[in-house]
Amino acid sequence: MGTTCCCLxxxxxxxxxxxxxxxxxxxxxxxxxxIVRTIQNKLTNKRVLKDHFINEIKDIxxxxxxxxxxxxxxxxxPHRVIPWFKLMNIKIDDLMTLINTKYKIDKxxxxxxxxxxxxxxxxNHDFMAQYNSDKVxxxxxxxxxxxxxxxxxxxxxxxxxxxxxxxE
Length: 168
What we know:
- Helix 3 (about 80-105) runs antiparallel to helix 4 (about 110-120) and helix 4 (about 110-120) runs antiparallel to helix 6 (about 140-155).
- It is rod-shaped and about 100 Å long.
- The protein contains 7 helices and no strands.
- The longest helix has about 55 residues, at about 15-70.
- By secondary structure, the protein is mainly α.
- The chain has helices at about 1-10, 15-70, 80-105, 110-120, 125-130, 140-155, 155-165.
- Helix content is about 80%, strand content about 0%.
């Protein structure tokens, strides 16, 4: 009972200015909590979205690596190559349109993989000559062309990842 009386007498002895100051402290504490919480959620959401797009770019890079490795190892069925490139083009177009809208990154950044690589493979003499066989075996000069393509364009994926990370 003594504690209750003490607390009641404390609150009863507060002047109007004290009540206003106490209310100001409470309001400021609530606002500070709300601001910190809102900013933290916004930063977390931005990071999650960036990580999602970065993982999508990494997945596309890995799919191209797998495709090229299969071509190097002569374990690719020629009839599956063109549909695979068409599906990859759709996937890249969709992803790069979103990345362009959100982060203003050039949506044509991966065009070499969408245009040059399919042309390099499907217009290749080895590919055309063996199109009706079960597997395509590329000559050493054809493999060299594919390796040169990779050497000159592989950094495009990393450039996109860096641009996404650097975006606001």
